[in-house]
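// run 5 | inverse folding | seed 20
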């Protein structure tokens, strides 16, 4: 059985170095591009013939649109709809990244801290920008809520800052851990299919069940990541 961790190795496809910095186009980069391209093509295909009474293909992107819009209204409020494009993009990017990784010989970029962490930091910076744009310097009250005596500032401010900065960490670790553990299980069980020969039908059937479950987990984790992104954006708009 091959090493189950080998599937997470980032490998350069087009080596590129600039000023001693490695910016190679890797297998991770490739599947990020594929996630964007495939989501775009699928939506373009489904919406190629739009009508007032939607067809089956048209109802798919419209259902996803309505689903994300309802998430935003529930977790942010009607004013959050102006940021629909961000939440919608995050959901599709994470969902396609999770599902693509389930195909044989594919690469799951959502199992890497760098990829998911980068997305989470971008979401955090966006939230900070929105908060500052709306509240100006009053946004700093995020770290010292109203009603708390100023004398407690040396204690409260560090706690609030740690809580605020932990948001991208919590987003990242939850998604990465779920994707990594699931793929390791699939790889280990797949190894037994080969090792057991004719009896490999048993682990093969078990692996097939896990794949179905992993599809559910992939979509669920995209949903959770999107909900948390909505909540954190709502905090930037409504906190204190």
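// decoded
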């Amino acid at each position: 059985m091959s090493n189950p961790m080998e599937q997470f190795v980032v490998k350069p496809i087009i080596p590129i170095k600039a000023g001693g910095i490695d910016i190679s186009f890797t297998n991770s980069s490739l599947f990020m591009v594929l996630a964007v391209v495939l989501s775009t093509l699928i939506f373009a295909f489904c919406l190629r013939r739009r009508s007032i009474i939607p067809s089956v293909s048209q109802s798919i992107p419209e259902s996803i649109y309505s689903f994300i819009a309802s998430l935003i209204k529930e977790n942010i409020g009607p004013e959050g709809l102006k940021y629909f494009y961000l939440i919608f993009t995050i959901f599709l990017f994470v969902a396609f990244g999770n599902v693509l990784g389930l195909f044989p010989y594919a690469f799951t970029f959502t199992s890497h801290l760098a990829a998911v962490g980068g997305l989470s930091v971008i979401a955090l910076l966006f939230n900070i920008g929105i908060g500052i744009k709306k509240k100006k310097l009053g946004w700093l009250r995020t770290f010292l809520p109203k009603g708390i005596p100023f004398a407690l500032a040396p204690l409260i401010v560090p706690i609030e800052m740690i809580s605020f900065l932990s948001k991208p960490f919590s987003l990242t670790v939850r998604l990465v851990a779920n994707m990594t553990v699931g793929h390791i299980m699939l790889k280990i069980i797949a190894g037994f299919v080969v090792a057991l020969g004719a009896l490999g039908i048993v682990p093969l059937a078990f692996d097939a069940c896990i794949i179905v479950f992993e599809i559910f987990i992939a979509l669920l984790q995209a949903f959770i990541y999107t909900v948390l992104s909505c909540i954190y954006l709502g905090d930037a708009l409504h906190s204190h």
